[in-house]
Design a protein that fits this description.
By secondary structure, the chain is an alpha/beta fold. The protein contains 21 helices and 25 strands. The chain has three domains: 252 residues, Rossmann fold (3-Layer(aba) Sandwich), CATH 3.40.50; 187 residues, ANL, N-terminal domain (Rossmann fold, 3-Layer(aba) Sandwich); 126 residues, ANL, C-terminal domain (GMP Synthetase, Chain A, domain 3), CATH 3.30.300.
Length: 600
């Protein structure tokens, strides 16, 4: 396929309908059902989108009405999203992990008149919230829902809404798409929030189209643009997956496969053999740990080759390659790397990391194993992709690459990264105060601290609001220290503190697999809480922390630590859906324990 001029599209619906006309019977959306991968082609998806759009208008929804979408990653998610937009409405994606309180906030704040929900289980907290929401009128169940006794909500069956006069629906969708402009609102994406109540980011059609344009050009120019295959894993309610995992494939005429679950992800990757995949750093960290353990279990030779590959990659990154490295690299290329590539399907062009900072060591590991890992940077408020590493500009794992096409980035006097361009949101929904604070003089104030390197790539050093300033005035990056801690095999998660304090302390979640192995070798019963009381177990964690302390400055050293009661998770509200820790929630729960570390 040829590179498209995305500037000619007035909106996302027009882009989709144009692609559907040219792709026709090619597979578009693929999901596993009853043990087999089943595909919907472009024509079928377009028919359902247009008919559903007509049905949404038929039940009384009008231009600009908001529709909340709660659904797992599956073909119906994409169909619903496109149909909402094709009907001249606004999609409000929400996380499947949301509580009743979360749903109520979004329903009330957005003023949504309709809800599309996939399953009875997901409907339970959502409908409880909808009963109290002032504007909610319609509920559409993708799977049959139990009808509640409520005079306020009208229930509809998805199956009834996706059948009808296809020709008439197509004509209506085409005519309406001609009236929607790039500046018109496409969706309101509520930030999962590492602090405070979620805010609704107003993403217009042009913001997402600008992201698609920038990313598609990188793929075309650096890798060649073919029949791309994507594996969708991150929640589609997250702006990163919504733009890069859904609309980028649509813009490129690619095929989207939907992963079944985290547990089946590795098997799904081997089955689907994707060419491109967007993932958050935490998943790369988990995969790195698993791959290293599996290689080490295969014996001395594979383990030696792995460590040699890592050493060569580190020397290449620092520009200190040896003459002998070329020959050794050829051996690794013929022996170890093909096995690793096969586990990722064998045709992966690039794995793109975003949503949170990536530890450079993790990036170097995947490069050493023969896989291209591109770290990107962005925010929901910017479509969300601002920059990404690319081979043409030279990949540097300690950077997030140069800004994408038609994106302007500058660094403020205090080091804050500022962004300008069509990708910048038009503001927060019904929140003028935060909008004025975040967008000033046409520049998006990201809240991130960074600088450009000599090659024009952005280097992120920290979040402005997360920066630790100790009692002596030293600035300390918590994310850097946490990233180094979680690379230790003994530590799964960590949060460090030290603002206005004399030194840094840490809250530690031990790695469960490592702890199980340690318990077996020590002859102890595996109970995480009981193990944490054992001096020998605590000493092992202390040793892991000290390994990190050896590589950081004096003010960055973790002097004391305590254990968390359980892993940070989405369910306990201590992780966002994109796997970033929610510091304010963790501090609320463990504040007294952290404070006690300064009295010991």
């Amino acid at each position: 396929m040829q590179l498209t001029d995305f500037d000619r599209y007035p909106n996302l619906v027009a882009m989709f309908l144009d692609r559907a006309r040219t792709r026709g019977s090619h597979p578009m959306l693929v999901a596993r059902h009853e043990g087999a991968w089943r595909a919907l082609d472009w024509t079928t998806v377009a028919d359902r989108v247009c008919v559903l759009a007509r049905s949404l208008r038929a039940i009384g929804l009008k231009d600009g009405d908001r529709v909340v979408l709660v659904c797992e990653n599956r073909p119906e998610w994409c169909i619903a999203d496109l149909a909402i937009m094709a009907a001249g409405l606004v999609t409000v994606p929400t996380y499947t992990t949301n509580t009743e309180r979360d749903h109520h906030h979004i329903l009330e704040n957005s003023g949504a008149r309709a809800i599309i929900v996939s399953t009875p289980k997901l409907a339970q907290p959502l409908l409880a919230a909808a009963m109290r929401a002032p504007n909610a009128e319609h509920v559409i169940g993708i799977e049959p829902l139990r009808r509640m006794q409520s005079g306020m909500l009208t229930f509809h069956d998805w199956r009834d809404l996706i059948v009808g006069d296809v020709a008439a629906a197509r004509d209506e969708a085409e005519a309406r798409a001609a009236t929607i402009g790039r500046d018109d609102l496409a969706c309101i994406i509520y930030t999962s929030g590492t602090g405070g109540a979620p805010r609704g980011v107003r993403q217009h059609h042009g913001a997402i189209l600008r992201n698609v344009d920038g990313a598609a050009h990188i793929v075309a120019e650096d890798y060649g643009w073919g029949d791309e295959v994507f594996l969708s894993f991150l929640p589609l309610s997250h702006a990163y997956e919504h733009s890069a995992g859904q609309f980028l494939p649509i813009g490129m005429g690619g095929t989207i496969h939907y992963a079944e679950s985290l547990e089946k992800l590795a098997a799904n990757i081997e089955d689907v053999r994707p060419t491109l995949m967007v993932v958050v750093p935490r998943l790369f960290e988990v995969l790195r740990t698993r791959i290293m353990k599996q290689i080490e279990k295969q014996g001395r030779l594979p383990a030696t080759l792995m460590h040699q590959a890592l050493a060569i990659a580190a020397r290449r990154a620092s520009g200190k390659m040896r003459l002998s490295d070329r020959l050794l690299d050829m051996v690794i290329e013929r022996t170890l790397r093909p096995k690793i590539r096969k586990r990722f399907g064998g045709r992966m062009k690039a794995l793109v990391s975003g949503g949170a900072p990536l530890n450079p060591e993790v990036g170097v590991f995947f490069e050493a194993m023969g896989l291209t890992l591109l770290q990107g940077y962005g925010q929901t408020e910017a479509g969300p992709v601002i920059s990404v590493n690319r081979p043409r500009a030279g990949i540097a794992m300690d950077t997030v690459g140069p800004p994408m096409r038609e994106v302007t980035v500058k660094i403020a006097e205090d080091g804050e990264i500022l962004v300008q361009g069509e990708l910048v949101m038009h503001g927060y929904w019904r929140n003028e105060v935060e909008t004025l604070r975040t967008i000033r003089d046409g520049w998006l104030h990201t809240g991130d601290i960074g600088h450009f390197d000599a090659a024009g790539r952005i280097v992120i050093t920290d979040r402005k609001k997360d920066m630790i300033v100790n009692d002596k005035g030293d600035n300390i990056s918590p994310q850097k220290i946490e990233g180094m801690l979680t690379l230790q095999p003994e530590i799964a998660q960590a949060m460090v503190s030290g603002d206005k304090r004399p030194y840094v302390v840490g809250l530690i979640v031990p790695d469960a697999e490592w702890a199980l192995d340690w318990a077996r070798e020590a002859g102890e019963h595996f109970d995480m809480a009981a193990l944490q009381d054992l001096p020998a177990f605590r000493a092992e964690i202390r040793a892991a922390i000290d390994r990190v302390n050896a590589d950081v400055s004096v003010v960055e050293k973790v002097r004391q630590f305590a254990f968390a009661d359980e892993p940070f998770a989405i369910d306990n509200e201590e992780l966002t859906p994109s796997m970033k820790i929610r510091r304010h929630k963790i501090r609320e729960r463990y504040g007294a324990r952290i404070d006690a570390l300064y009295r010991g």
